[in-house]
Amino acid sequence: MAHERMYDEDDPLLLRLRELALALPEATEKEAWGRPTFRCGKIFALYGGGVKVRPGEHEPHDRAVLFKAEPGETAALDEDPRFFLPAYYGPFGWRGLDLDTPDVDWDEVRELLDASFRLVATRRAVKELDAR
Length: 132
Known about the structure:
alpha+beta, six-stranded antiparallel beta sheet, YjbR-like_sf, Aspartate Aminotransferase, domain 1
């Protein structure tokens, strides 16, 4: 069963995130679970998610980037109030960052995408990224 689309294709935050994510070597976009996912073989980022509040109840973060955090960085991210533990993905090392705040640092978003990408991308794609 297909999921209902949970984003606006013309959302300027999605457009900015898409530009950054698809600039990475061999990166592609595919809608899954009603949300844009960015992949290099495996998923390295998603647009939108939520936090599980209690069974069956989620707090939406529809304009956030979800990313796979470097294992040594998760504790620091968990101390930073800007980041959240996304439902379903959090136990696997993923974190989220809301993009709809006035102080979003897009250079930081680029760095988070880069790190997440490197955790899942092929050696060939990482080598191409390093050569840039």
